[in-house]
Amino acid sequence: MRIGGISIIIDYSWLVIFPFFVVITKGFFEQAYPDYSVPFYWAMGGVASLLIFLSVLIHELAHSFVAKKYGIRIRSIRLHIFGGMSHLGLEPQTGRHEFVITLAGWVVNMALGCFSLMVYSYFWLMQQITPVTGIAACLIVANGTLAVIHMIPGFPLDGGRVLRAILWDRWGDKARATKVVSQVGNALALFFIIFGILLLPVIQSLFSVLLVVIGLFMKLAAVGNYQSIMQRQALAGVPVRQVMTEDVVSVDWLLSVEELVQDYIYKYQFTHFPVFNRDEFMGMVSLDKVKPVARELWTFKQVRDIITPIENIASVRPIDDASEVLNRMVSEDIRCMPVIENGKLVGIVSRSDIVNLFKIKSDLGTA
Length: 367
Fold this sequence. Notes:
This protein has helices at 14-32, 38-69, 95-125, 131-150, 158-171, 174-203, 206-235, 240-243, 257-268, 287-290, 303-306, 322-332, 351-364, and strands at 2-3, 6-10, 74-80, 83-88, 251-252, 272-277, 280-286, 308-309, 336-341, 344-350. Strands 1-2-3-4 form a 4-stranded mixed beta sheet, with helices on one face. Strands 5-6-7-8 form a 4-stranded mixed beta sheet. A two-stranded antiparallel sheet has the order 9-10. By secondary structure, it is α+β, with helices and mostly antiparallel strands. The protein has 3 domains: 2-150, no CATH class; 169-235; 240-364, CBS-domain (Roll). The protein has 13 helices and 10 strands.
């Protein structure tokens, strides 16, 4: 679905976590309201779980809408087993921007928790212990837990980004701030994993399992962010011209899809080709554009029928920084981009081109 122009993607992992929430909240309602029927408990568990799910979504929307205020395009929000993640088209330009964007989600959880507490308090003072009170209690716990967990100072949690924003604003060095926060997050991750494992035989509860899961999640994120920083430092100052492919294999836009597949895709084993009408660069054609075309129509369809026009293609210049281009490719899920200079195509740059340079520098010890 789309909210405010932002694509909302529900990850398959929610097929696991959502029933888990329903079972947990159903058990809570069974203990709190013993005089109701079994269908009622399942219904209340479902309602409470949906509202918890909605709380996570509102948390991510808060990040996204604030980011849009700073002119940052939001590609999508993915809700997964660990909560959610907003995919930004670009990274925040300053530490202060990142601080405000990140803190927005935490503020929303605190506001939802306080509102739920007000609802719970109202019914408690009126001595009306109803299912609404139970749902409010679930939301107090859920939003309070989200607020606490997200303020842990390690990636990819909000606390890690808040700490990076503070250090980034103070030092003026995003790479250094990210490296420090990655190290802090890695240390905390190891602590949670070890403490959770030691605690498990003692209390035998989901809390110890949660500590281990959070630790593993933070450990992976810490490694990923550190590698990202090393990659960015190795590629800093490297122009796209140095990594792009200049001898581009192009296709004519009157070529049939059959000829495109047989004479180009199979022969060169590329998935993207620039398309020309004589000397004019018209756009790009890709394997993804060929797939929807029925096999029996390959002979009749031409490349111009499945082309992505030049006005719809993200392009770069030869002088652009390779690290920034790679970040853009990853954030916007682009495999390759045409390199344009003075209105003419001078090459193609792909993710693999840039990553290969980083690997070579790493092997040579110069990264």
